[in-house]
Design a protein that fits this description.
With 322 residues, the chain is of the alpha/beta class. It is built from twelve helices and nine strands.
């Protein structure tokens, strides 16, 4: 079985390639830039230079494949919404067309952002499963809007054309080759200093990229036509508290983190200066809130369990677990 992976040099895509190669399966990777070619080659995939917004690139990359993992997406950029639509939504439409031509299974890497209110992490425990109703998405949240539109594209295609399509909905992802969340934590961990914003007894809404990749392979193995969505929002138990999670990064680097208490107001003001008020409020909610997204459905229906616990995943993320 040959699988095409888009975004193969990115966080999720690179881990999917590793997981597929570990099973001995051939992998093709559609990459946009020449420098990404070396990354996917090193991971064991056959690179195809092209763009997910270009139909001819999809034709070349998807010829003869049995499965497609569409992981490429704009995540955090200053691009206008039209660019998010062009890349995230337009690229997904072409992924659907490629799956139809090749009669291939399609796994679309979506996000819990599609639910709306994805920055609303409350201190109390909630139960947001795949049947949790979608909420309105603020106009300025271009990423969330594009991910919801992309999911609608694959849902309609599965219903109308009998394709086998699964949407994987992770929350915040960390791990090797992460360019967003993990580098920020490592920066503080290397300094041995990380302010404590909340009580530290909550559980962060994040998941290791290797676990997302493992769930993606379980989805690829599913052959039933139609659309299904699965939350993938936690590591192998035990679930670490925020305090334990941060300490794991320090321990992986051989550092004991000093965590002086920082009241919420100075944190939000400081973050507002750097990232703006909206992102500052979202960061405070994330750091102090509980993970509301549950992933019982994929365990029940596909028999999937995350292979990596958080302590091992953190060690791998900082290069100590291999």
């Amino acid at each position: 079985m040959t699988t095409l992976v888009t975004g193969g040099s990115g966080l999720v895509g690179s881990h999917v390639i590793e997981a597929l190669r570990a099973r001995g399966e051939p992998v093709r990777a559609l990459v946009r830039k020449e420098q990404a070619r070396g990354v996917v080659l090193a991971l064991g995939a056959e690179p195809v230079i092209g763009d997910v917004t270009d139909e001819e690139s999809w034709r070349r990359a998807s010829a003869g494949v049995d499965g497609i993992v569409h992981a490429a997406a704009l995540v955090q950029t200053r691009s206008p919404f039209a660019e998010y639509q062009r890349v995230n939504v337009g690229g997904t439409r072409l992924a659907v067309e490629a799956a139809r031509r090749a009669n291939a299974r399609l796994v679309h890497i979506s996000s819990v952002a599609a639910y709306g209110g994805s920055s609303d992490y409350r201190p109390g425990v909630e139960h947001r499963d795949e049947d949790y109703p979608f909420s309105p998405i603020p106009e300025h949240d271009f990423y969330a809007r594009s991910k919801r539109e992309s999911e609608e594209v694959v849902r309609r295609a599965a219903d109308a054309r009998g394709l086998s399509v699964i949407a994987i909905r992770p929350n915040v992802i960390y791990g090797e080759r992460d360019r967003l969340f993990t580098p920020q934590l490592l920066k503080f961990a290397k300094l041995g200093f990380l302010p404590a914003i909340g009580p530290g007894t909550n559980h962060l809404s994040c998941v290791y990229a290797g676990n997302v990749a493992s769930a993606t392979l379980a989805a690829l193995d599913r052959v039933k036509p139609g659309f299904r969505a699965y939350n993938v929002t936690g590591d192998k138990p035990p679930v670490l508290t925020e305090r334990e999670f941060m300490a794991a990064f320090g321990a992986a680097l051989g550092r004991r983190l000093r965590r002086p208490r920082l009241p919420a107001l100075p944190f939000v003001i400081g973050m507002s200066i750097v990232q703006g008020p909206r992102l500052a409020r979202a960061a405070h909610s994330f750091v102090t809130g509980e993970n509301p997204y549950v992933w019982d459905r994929i365990r029940r229906e596909l028999g999937w369990e995350p292979p990596f616990g958080t302590v091992e995943a953190v060690a791998r993320s900082v290069g100590r677990g291999r």
